[in-house]
């Protein structure tokens, strides 16, 4: 599949689980960061335009951290924050969705947002998991310096 995807899975290597912006700033600061993210997006998903309330959830959006991985230096660098509806956010964390038995929901959202076929969505996820397994072999250095630009303490 060569076409550009609007919605992608971003599987965090297992060696980086629970090591993120949220775990590296005080709760009060995380609340400021995520609420700013929601506000900048007008409380709508920046990928599909939907809201969690339309999806039967109590909140509209969730703040997702966008990471870039340097596979040579093993550095995980924060590149941005994005407001996502719960369904698009679940795609970003497809591994966790799979553990919860919700892979079918991930496939459904990939098909809907990216206009993929079921086989294209499944093939795409398989490739994402291959990258995830390869990256999970390494310890990563976390770079969240972008937060300093995003919010002034």
Give the topology:
Layout: H1 21-24, H2 27-40, E1 62-70, E2 75-84, H3 86-92, H4 94-99, H5 103-114, H6 118-135, E3 141-143, H7 146-150
Parallel strand pairs: 2-3
Antiparallel strand pairs: 1-2
Structural description of this entry:
By secondary structure, the protein is of the alpha+beta class. The protein has one domain (14-146). The chain has 7 helices and 3 strands, in the order ααββααααβα. The chain has helices at 21-24, 27-40, 86-92, 94-99, 103-114, 118-135, 146-150, and strands spanning 62-70, 75-84, 141-143. The chain has a 3-stranded mixed β-sheet with strand order 1-2-3. The protein is globular and about 45 Å long.
């Amino acid at each position: 599949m060569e076409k550009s995807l609007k919605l992608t899975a971003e599987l965090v290597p297992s060696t980086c689980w629970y090591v993120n912006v949220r775990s590296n700033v005080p709760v009060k600061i995380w609340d400021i960061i995520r609420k700013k993210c929601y506000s900048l997006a007008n409380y709508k998903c920046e990928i599909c335009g939907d809201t969690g309330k339309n999806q039967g959830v109590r909140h509209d959006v969730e703040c997702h951290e966008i990471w870039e991985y340097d596979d040579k230096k093993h550095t995980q660098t924060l590149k941005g924050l994005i407001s996502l509806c719960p369904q698009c956010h679940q795609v970003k964390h497809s591994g966790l969705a799979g553990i919860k038995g919700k892979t079918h929901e991930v496939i459904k959202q990939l098909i809907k947002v990216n206009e993929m076929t079921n086989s294209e969505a499944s093939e795409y996820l398989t490739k994402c998991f291959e990258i995830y397994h390869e990256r999970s072999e390494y310890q990563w250095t976390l770079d969240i310096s972008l937060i300093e630009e995003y919010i002034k303490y």
